Amino acid sequence: MYGAAIAAPVALMPQVWTLYSQKNASGLALPTWVALGLINILWVLYSFAHREPPLGIANALFAMLNFSIVAGILIYG
């Protein structure tokens, strides 16, 4: 499960790469990415409460990537 926890967030890397390499946030909705990041934080809290490290790792990584997209939208949008 730890492998999946690390591998799953890799699916967002192309979006992050495209956003920052092209310096273009058109087509990205800020509320969506903020909501996704906040949801990931809730899952991290849940994972601590239920002692589920893989769930926490995956969602912490997702939150970092989602908020990096939020930052890119604010910078380039």
Write the topology of this structure.
Blueprint: H1 2-7, H2 13-22, H3 30-49, H4 53-76
Unreliable spans are: none
Helix content: over 70%
Counting helices, strands and paired strands, the structural category is mainly alpha
**What do we call the CATH topology?**
Monooxygenase
Our estimate of the beta-strand percent is under 5%
> What is the count of helical runs?
4
Q: CATH first level: which class? A: Mainly Alpha
* Distance linking N and C termini: 36 Å
The major beta sheet can be summarized as:
none
Overall pLDDT level: 96
Shape: elongated
- Got a strand count? 0
What string gives the helices and strands in order?
HHHH
CATH architecture call: Up-down Bundle
Task: Specify Rg, calculated over alpha carbons.
Answer: 13 Å
Provide a descriptive summary of the structure in words.
The protein is mainly alpha-helical. It has one domain: Monooxygenase (Up-down Bundle), CATH 1.20.1280.290. Helix content is about 80%, strand content about 0%. The chain has 4 helices and no strands. The chain is elongated. The chain starts with a helix and ends with a helix. About 20% of the residues are buried. The mean pLDDT is about 95.
